[in-house]
Amino acid sequence: MAVDPSQQQTNSGQEYSILPMHNEKASVRRRGLLRVSTAGESGRRGIHPLHFLFVCFKSTCTLSMLVSVLWPFVPAAIAFHFARPDLHVWVFTLNYIAIVPSANLLGFAGGELAKKLPKVFGILLETTLSSVVEIVLFMVLIHNDNGGNLIPVIQAAILGSILANLLLCLGMCFFFGGILREDQKFHETISEVGSGLLLVAGFGLMIPSAFYAALSGNSAKVQITPADLSRFTLKISRATAVILIVAFIMFLIYNLHSHHSIFDEVLEFDEAQDEDRDEELMRSKLTLTECFVAIAVSLACVCMSAIFLVQEIEHIVVERGVSDNFMGLILVPVVEKAAEHLTAIDEAWDNQINFALFHCLGPSIQTALLNAPLAVLVGWGLGKDMGLDFEVFMIALLVLSILVVGNFLRDGKSTWLEGGLCVLVYVIIAVTTWYYPKIEAAGGHEA
C-alpha cells in the first residue's frame, strides 16, 4: 500500500521531501478504471432533475457559481440569431457572453467525470473536453472561410489560446495562489515536461513562418516565385502538423503509461494539500449519468453559440474596424478558455498548484500539438490553404512568452509577483494587438 507522501520520513530521521518523488512502493496502485473512495462519489444513481440543476448551478466555487447567472443569455443569443440576424453586433455580443456559462458547465461536468477516473487520465480527459470549444470554433471558422478571409483569425486564435493559458491564466494562478502565501512549490516533473514540450511546440510552429519570412525578401540570390514560396510553405505546414500530432501521441503515452505513477503521486499529494478538502468531500456531486447529460447539454449549447459567433466575426471585423489579430489573439481565446481559467484559479487559491499547472500547461500543449495541426489537416481535406505560417510579430510573442514562463517555472516555486508580471505582459500584448494592422505580402499571401 502506498504511503502518504506528506507523512513519510526517511530512515535517517531526516524529513521527507515536501514534494513526492517516484519510488517502487508508490508505483503499486489501483489499476481499475474507476477510482475507489474518492471525492468524486455522489452517493446516488441515475438522474434527479432538481438536484441535478442545483449541483450544476452551485458548481465547485463561487466564481463558477457567479458565471452560472449568465445562463439567460444562452436562449437570448439563440433567439436574436434567428429573429434579428441583421443586428450583427448584438448577435455577436450575446453569443460571446453565452459561450461562457455553456463552457463553464462543460468544464464542471468534465471535472466531475474526471474525479471518478484515475487522476492523470481524468485530468487529460477534462482538458480535452475543455478544448472542445476551441476545436469547434476552429472547425466552424475553416468551414466558413471564403478565399482565405478567416485564415488570419484562425492563426491568431491558435497563438492567442496558448498565450492566454501561459500568461493570463498561469499568471492569475500564481497571483491569487501567492497572495496569502510566501510562495507555492510545484513538482519539477510537471514544470519540466510542460515547458520542454512547449519549447518543442513553439519551435514546430515557428519553422513554417521562418521559412516564408527568410525567402520572401525577393533576394537576388533566391530564385523562387511568390506562388511557389506559398505552395512550399503550405506543404511544410502540413508535414509539420503531422509531426506535431505524433509528438502529442508521445505526450499521451508518457502521461498515461510510462510515467503515470509519478503524476499520480504528484496529484494525490496536491489533493491532500487542498485547503477546503473537507468542504469538497461534503459537496453535492453529479452521478456518472448526470455527468454525461451535462456534457451533452453543454456541448450542444457551446456548438450553437460558437457557430453563431463565427458567422458574425466578418461583420465585426469589417464594419466595426476590429483587427483580425485582436479578434483571434485576444477576444476569441479569452471567452473560449474562461471556464478553464476559473477552475485553475480556484485550484491555485486552494493551494493545489500542481493541478493548476496541469490546467494551464496541458491546454497549451494540446492546442500546439493537436488542435492547431488538426485545423491544418481539416483545412487540407476541405481544400483550404490553412497553414502554420504565422506573422513574425505573433510568433515572436509566442516564443518570448514560452521563455518567460519557462524561466518562472525553473526554480520550482511561484509568487504573486511572478503572476502579476505575467498578466501585465499579456495586457501589453493586448494593447499592441489592438493597433496591429493586417499585413499582406507580395502575391496576397498573409504575412
Automatic annotation (TrEMBL):
<keyword id="KW-0813">Transport</keyword>
<keyword id="KW-0109">Calcium transport</keyword>
<dbReference type="GO" id="GO:0012505">
    <property type="term" value="C:endomembrane system"/>
</dbReference>
<dbReference type="GO" id="GO:0015369">
    <property type="term" value="F:calcium:proton antiporter activity"/>
</dbReference>
<dbReference type="InterPro" id="IPR044880">
    <property type="entry name" value="NCX_ion-bd_dom_sf"/>
</dbReference>
<feature type="domain" description="Sodium/calcium exchanger membrane region">
    <location>
        <begin position="88"/>
        <end position="255"/>
    </location>
</feature>
<keyword id="KW-0106">Calcium</keyword>
<comment type="function">
    <text>Has a role in promoting intracellular calcium ion sequestration via the exchange of calcium ions for hydrogen ions across the vacuolar membrane. Involved also in manganese ion homeostasis via its uptake into the vacuole.</text>
</comment>
<comment type="similarity">
    <text>Belongs to the Ca(2+):cation antiporter (CaCA) (TC 2.A.19) family.</text>
</comment>
<feature type="transmembrane region" description="Helical">
    <location>
        <begin position="120"/>
        <end position="142"/>
    </location>
</feature>
<dbReference type="GO" id="GO:0006874">
    <property type="term" value="P:intracellular calcium ion homeostasis"/>
</dbReference>
<feature type="transmembrane region" description="Helical">
    <location>
        <begin position="154"/>
        <end position="176"/>
    </location>
</feature>
<keyword id="KW-0472">Membrane</keyword>
<dbReference type="GO" id="GO:0000329">
    <property type="term" value="C:fungal-type vacuole membrane"/>
</dbReference>
<keyword id="KW-1133">Transmembrane helix</keyword>
<feature type="transmembrane region" description="Helical">
    <location>
        <begin position="235"/>
        <end position="254"/>
    </location>
</feature>
<dbReference type="InterPro" id="IPR004713">
    <property type="entry name" value="CaH_exchang"/>
</dbReference>
<feature type="transmembrane region" description="Helical">
    <location>
        <begin position="416"/>
        <end position="436"/>
    </location>
</feature>
<protein>
    <recommendedName>
        <fullName>Vacuolar calcium ion transporter</fullName>
    </recommendedName>
</protein>
<feature type="transmembrane region" description="Helical">
    <location>
        <begin position="89"/>
        <end position="108"/>
    </location>
</feature>
<keyword id="KW-0406">Ion transport</keyword>
<feature type="domain" description="Sodium/calcium exchanger membrane region">
    <location>
        <begin position="292"/>
        <end position="434"/>
    </location>
</feature>
<keyword id="KW-0812">Transmembrane</keyword>
<feature type="transmembrane region" description="Helical">
    <location>
        <begin position="291"/>
        <end position="310"/>
    </location>
</feature>
<dbReference type="Pfam" id="PF01699">
    <property type="entry name" value="Na_Ca_ex"/>
</dbReference>
<keyword id="KW-0926">Vacuole</keyword>
<dbReference type="InterPro" id="IPR004798">
    <property type="entry name" value="CAX-like"/>
</dbReference>
<feature type="transmembrane region" description="Helical">
    <location>
        <begin position="390"/>
        <end position="409"/>
    </location>
</feature>
<keyword id="KW-0050">Antiport</keyword>
<feature type="transmembrane region" description="Helical">
    <location>
        <begin position="52"/>
        <end position="83"/>
    </location>
</feature>
<feature type="transmembrane region" description="Helical">
    <location>
        <begin position="197"/>
        <end position="215"/>
    </location>
</feature>
<dbReference type="InterPro" id="IPR004837">
    <property type="entry name" value="NaCa_Exmemb"/>
</dbReference>
